[in-house]
Write a structure and sequence with these properties.
- The chain is mainly alpha-helical.
- The protein is built from four helices and two strands.
- Helix 1 runs antiparallel to helix 2.
């Protein structure tokens, strides 16, 4: 789902901007584009983190995790989507005036003159939805590999 959203709402407008050599979709679509881009990236990072962590927990604690079912997984995925959408919805509502079209990247980005509060909030979001899940995936993968090597 994340890949389809990003390809439709990020790749196609970027190609159209390259062809037109300008942002032709307007300011409102630029805010939506930034919102979908951020939500798709964040949700996919967190969902990959949850997938890797759940595999580790299933390997380490098979008896305790045997009661996990699809309904629990769907509720967890729904909560990830809702939380990322609400976080970025608040960010877009408060700081959408900071978006500008960047001619180097041919996409909508946060301007250099954005408020310090907006930049700090953006940095916190990036750490929480990008860096921490990536670190958790790396650590969980190492533990999974250790478990598999020992199980041989």
């Amino acid at each position: 789902v994340c890949d389809l959203l990003l390809s439709v709402f990020f790749v196609l407008p970027t190609i159209a901007s390259l062809i037109a050599d300008d942002w032709i979709f307007g300011e409102i679509f630029g805010c939506y584009l930034k919102f979908i881009d951020a939500v798709g990236y964040s949700a996919s990072n967190i969902l990959i983190c949850l997938l890797t962590s759940s595999k580790l927990l299933i390997l380490k604690f098979p008896l305790q995790t045997r009661h996990w079912n699809r309904k629990l997984a769907h509720c967890l995925c729904l909560s990830v989507w809702c939380s990322t959408m609400s976080i970025y919805g608040i960010y877009n509502f408060c700081f959408s005036h900071n978006y500008v079209f960047d001619y180097n990247l041919y996409t909508v980005t946060v301007s250099d003159t954005a408020s310090t509060t907006g930049k700090k909030f953006n940095n916190v979001i990036i750490i929480a939805t990008g860096i921490v899940p990536t670190f958790v995936v790396i650590v969980a993968t190492v533990f999974i590999l250790q478990h598999l090597i020992r199980a041989r």
